[in-house]
Write a structure and sequence with these properties.
GO molecular function, one term: copper ion binding
CATH superfamily of the largest domain: Cupredoxins -  blue copper proteins
CATH class of the largest domain: Mainly Beta
Bound molecules: CU-O-CU linkage, copper (II) ion
Protein name: Multicopper oxidase CueO
Keywords: Metal-binding, Oxidoreductase, Signal
Shape: globular
Structural class: mainly beta
CATH architecture of the largest domain: Sandwich
CATH topology of the largest domain: Immunoglobulin-like
Helix content: under 10%
Subunit structure: Monomer.
Radius of gyration: 21 Å
Organism: Nocardia ignorata
Number of helices: 4
Strand order of the largest sheet: 14-13-12-16-21-18-19
Distance between the termini: 46 Å
Length: about 500
């Protein structure tokens, strides 16, 4: 048995080999033994005579070098780990043919996407091994950084942990017109942050989950540990996704400098917000812009979690940990970037902070309102063309967050007060502090379906797998629920 420290030290001497399935930009120098951050390739697509943009993805097993010189068995989409970045424009109709070459059934959920429930990719749209699932919808929302990941009931943490996750970027004219960094892989960088533990033989360790799920001691960014980004422009935009199972990150730059938050889960903010720290819980995204001077180096780091009142086992939940996430190395000469615009995308309020709540949700242990998920139970039906206000309370001494499928919501209040600027944009996932109550406004505009439900759940994947989830139908006037009976033992249902 080698000690963990000795094992990792040995890795530093191993030759540089890049993860297969990722296109990696060449870097001039790799300081401190780091490797260049892999940039997921853009998923190829073709537009047919019918105007539909078509993609294909294949869930498959392979191996990748998360740790340099070590081969780790991983799962990926159309590659050995993670997946290509799917990119489409608002107004466009998309179709994705997803085949499953894994040894077990999986599903693909479009996190943050407004789309018909039967194409949502939740636990009711399983893809059996060897099967192909082909959802299609029209993108009807503003430019945003979304993502896709598996959602099999009870096994989401395992599937994500093994490497299944990808970005889904939506573009639109309004965002294109803004002078933000937007050259993919150059000054507009997708960055998925995950944590992993490895066994002595280099496999991803799936043992010993804590009460917040699997926590790792190694940070993996875009599929590799120990990455750096060579910055060649004065400003760089990072589209950050917390793709971890149960870990919260408190992002900051190592030298304490401020950065700007320009977007959250559902799109760009009304205006950039200067921050020195930004907390992201699992499933949340943030677009941040960092300014660097020629030749400068800094590090994106995660600091201990400061918001911990009411959490009784902070150390066990990883709240005390500090990690280097990504080294940023500016070139000696930087291409000029436009200054950040004073305003970005305006937002119209869906409801007033004083609007009474339509429904309320208590989060505790693995339950929402004292119930665990039952795929055969519809927890609520929502009349189409309504705006609802949901009141969500963490009445626990555990961290939880709250994610709603189908919609992006606005946070009206946090414990009765206006939310901080970082929570003032469109969100589909919100962290809930222990003891706090959040009111969320959301609109159920269309996509009625009496059969297929959408989910709402805690996005700590272990909690979700344990049943901290419920289901709702969006119904047309006069429509009655007609849910499909689920055989929970069925492997493939499509
Ligand atoms: Cu990102 Cu229901 O999930
Ligand atoms: Cu989702
Ligand atoms: Cu939870």
């Amino acid at each position: 048995m080698v000690s963990r420290r000795g094992f990792l030290a040995g890795l530093a001497l191993a030759p540089v080999v890049y993860a297969a399935g990722c296109s990696v930009r060449p870097s001039v120098s790799a300081a401190n033994g780091t490797r260049p951050l892999p940039i997921p390739s853009l998923a190829p697509s073709s537009v047919g005579a019918d105007g539909v943009r078509r993609f294909t993805l294949r869930a498959q097993a392979g191996s990748s070098e998360m740790l340099r010189g070590v081969s780790t068995p991983t799962w990926g989409y159309s590659g050995s780990v993670l997946g290509p970045t799917v990119r489409a424009r608002r107004g466009e109709r998309v179709e994705l043919a997803i085949s499953n070459a894994l040894p077990e059934a999986t599903s693909v959920h479009w996190h943050g996407m407004h789309l018909p429930a039967k194409f949502d990719g939740g636990p009711h749209q399983m893809i059996a091994p060897g099967a192909v699932w082909t959802p299609s919808w029209t993108v009807q929302q503003q430019a945003a950084t979304l993502w896709y990941h598996p959602h099999p009931h009870g096994a989401t943490e395992k599937h994500v942990h093994r490497g299944l996750s990808g970005f889904f970027l939506i573009d639109d004219d309004a965002a294109d017109a803004l002078p933000l960094p937007k050259e993919y892989g150059v000054d507009d960088i997708p960055l998925v942050i995950q944590d992993r533990r490895f066994t002595a033989d280099g496999a991803v360790d799936e043992s010993d989950p804590t009460d917040v799920g699997l926590l790792g001691d190694t940070i993996v960014t875009n599929g590799i540990a120990g990455a750096h980004l060579r910055v060649t422009t004065e400003r760089v935009r990072l589209r950050v996704l917390n793709g971890s199972s149960g870990r919260l990150y408190n992002l900051a730059l190592a030298d304490g400098r401020a950065f700007h938050l320009t977007g959250t889960d559902g799109g760009l903010l009304p205006k950039p917000v200067a921050l020195e720290q930004l907390q992201l819980s699992p499933g949340e995204r943030a677009e941040i812009v960092i300014a660097l001077r020629p030749g400068e180096n800094t590090t994106l780091r995660s600091l201990p979690i400061t918001d911990r009142a009411g959490i009784d086992r902070a150390a066990e939940f990883g709240f005390d940990d500090t990690f280097d996430i990504l080294a940023l190395q500016a070139a000696e000469t930087l291409r000029p970037s436009a200054p950040l615009p004073a305003s970005l995308i305006p937002m119209t309020a869906l409801a007033a902070a004083t609007t009474p709540a339509t429904r309320s949700f208590d989060l505790q242990w693995f339950m929402i309102n004292n119930r665990r998920m039952d795929m055969n139970r519809i927890d609520m039906t929502i009349p189409v063309d309504t705006t609802e206000v949901w009141s969500v309370r963490n009445k626990d001494n555990w961290p939880h967050n709250f994610h709603v499928h189908d919609v992006q919501f606005q946070i009206l209040t946090v414990d009765g007060k206006a939310p901080p600027p970082a929570l003032s944009g469109w969100k589909d996932t919100v962290y809930t502090s222990s003891g706090s109550t959040y009111t969320l406004a959301m609109r159920f505009a269309d996509h009625t379906d009496p059969t297929y439900p959408y989910m709402f759940h805690c996005h700590l994947l272990h909690h979700e797998d344990q049943g901290m989830m419920g289901q709702f139908l969006v119904l047309a006037p006069g429509q009655r629920p007609a849910p499909m009976a689920m055989d929970m033992g069925a492997k493939g249902h499509h």
